[in-house]
Amino acid sequence: MSEFNKKWNELAYIKDELAVRDWFMGTSGNLSIRLNDNHFLVTASGKDKRKRTSEDFLLVDQEGKPAETTFLKPSAETLLHCEVYRQTEAGCSLHVHTIANNVISELYGDAGEIRFQHQELIKAFDMWGEDDILSIPIIKNFADIPKLAAAFGEHINSDKGAVLIRNHGITVWGRTGFEAKKLLEACEFLFQYKVTLLTIKGGL
Ligand SMILES: CSCCC(=O)C(=O)COP(=O)(O)O
Ligand SMILES: [Zn+2]
User: Fold this and answer.
1) pTM exceeds cut of 0.95
2) Ligand closest to the CA atom of residue 28
3) Could you say which residues bind Zn(2+) here (predicted)?
4) Which of 59, 94, 122, 185 is most buried (CB neighbours < 10 A)?
5) How many structural domains is the chain composed of?
6) Residue of the nearest CA to atom 4 in ligand 1?
């Protein structure tokens, strides 16, 4: 199987799994996987990402422009994926909108970050110390995508990470598709935990 097909299938399986979790409400979300130093596959814009079709992804260059002739449009948020691949050696970047990540982004948006400590699942981010703190930055949801991508890019400092976009969603990236999905699941677990706890206990 060609490298292109392998990467296509890997992203398709990740998309299927996130769809089962219902993380693509209202056509939201976009996913990408690196093919080589200059190209990555990204989801086509505006599609129902719960469906599997032969037109789910297209190949784009480092600037997010289609690398082949196609009628498909790359995700409107492709520039954020470009930032990940430009600044890191990451192999996969995932963006989803969930109720929990939106609620957390609003509750902690003014603080500019949400912190998690004494939570087992921060180990997904390789935080093994008993008192380690995972900080997930929260940025403004600029309507101008180049501006949003620039703000997002300021928080990329490793081959894996996560950034919340206020009242919009989360983007995570990792060295592999497996790692990116693991981080996304860990983040969503932590967000749901926090929202549930706040609901039960009240207060921030
Ligand atoms: C209706 S979702 C609004 C756009 C968005 O935030 C998103 O994640 C999906 O955009 P895309 O162009 O990747 O389909
Ligand atoms: Zn989005």
Assistant:
1) yes
2) 1
3) 95, 97
4) 94
5) 1
6) 28
